[in-house]
Amino acid sequence: MAGKRRRANGWEYVFKRSGLLDKPIYVTFTSEAEGDAFAVRLDKLLDRGIVPTEYQRPSRMMNISELVRAYEAQAHPSSKDVGQLGTIVSSRGSTPLVDINATWVDDWVTELKRVENLAPATIRAKVGALARCADWGIRKGFVLLPDHPFRTLPDGYAQYTKADVAIVGSARTDVERDRRLEVGEGEKIVSVVAGGVLARKQRPLVLLHTPAVRLLFMLALESAMRLREMYTLTMDQVDITRSTVFLDKTKNGDKRQVPLSSVAKVELDTYFKVRDAQRCGNRVFPWWDGDASEPALAKLSDYLSKLYKSIFEQAGAAALNFHDLRHEATSRLFERTTLSETQIMKITGHRSHRMVMRYANLRGSDLASKLW
Fold first, then answer.
1. pTM
2. I need a labelling partner for 255 at 20 to 30 A (CA). Which of 110, 179, 237, 367 fits?
3. Domain ranges across the chain
4. Phi/psi at 28 (nearest 5 deg)?
5. Domain spanning 185-368 has what CATH number?
6. Residue 95: phi, psi to the nearest 5?
7. How distant is the alpha carbon of residue 258 from its chain centre?
């Protein structure tokens, strides 16, 4: 209960809560009735452990490094954000939280361009990671950012201005891969996989699990799923009867259903007839052992990416990476269907319209065929 006493300038109320408030809250009202009404409201909040923003204790965290450590320990940041935050802590970790304002953020972005000479995409990744960390800190009451300077940056803030170019000498731009399968490349890749042997300088490399290697390639082309989303699939996620694959954990953290094309259904049905059930267990593919830790998944992703890179090189598609298959599959959705942009985003799992629209690259020959 709040204490109150009459003062020369009105009624003074004092609120004390051990363990909740660092120090008593003193509030003065000219009217006792007004003060009593306020005291009833505030006491109810304090009894429930809620401290209004204006009375919250100041942050006990002193700098960015401490905030990031708490965020990584108590929240669930993506592995990508963890990596970006690690570089921020290395360069800016000692920055006091009270110093973070619009000027500090603007100066930091300028440094990322003029000193570190980073590409716009990398700058956005760093700012985004720290912004999400700050969001969490604000919700927890560790950080007070009234104007949230990370969220009020103007559009195009990561692009190099004329002033930046004058100092750096050139403007860094984002390099977005737009590699598509050329005519006949898909068939050559499937042929190399069917051959089961990769040429090497010392001795040939025998491909293991060739049915799985073929399926992963074909599924990537037909579904636009990411590599990790596919090789971690379990049998109960695949419903051929309903023509869907259910992804309960994706890169963006969202669940989604991926429709299966007729080609994908045939490939899956064929694979399931020869699948090594004893080795795979409930998993669709044989490579993953169920270890969902980030180091284990990163290691397997690297292994499979390099394996397919070797396959692509032998098929004469040296400039092709496995992730390019996602670009190819998404482009085909634009080219071969009448699905809307929003519907395609639901299939592919892209969150940004800007990102998904860059996949809508139609070849000149495709456009020419539509002209008179």
1. 0.65
2. 179
3. 3-55, 64-168, 185-368
4. -115, 135
5. 1.10.443.10
6. -65, 125
7. 19
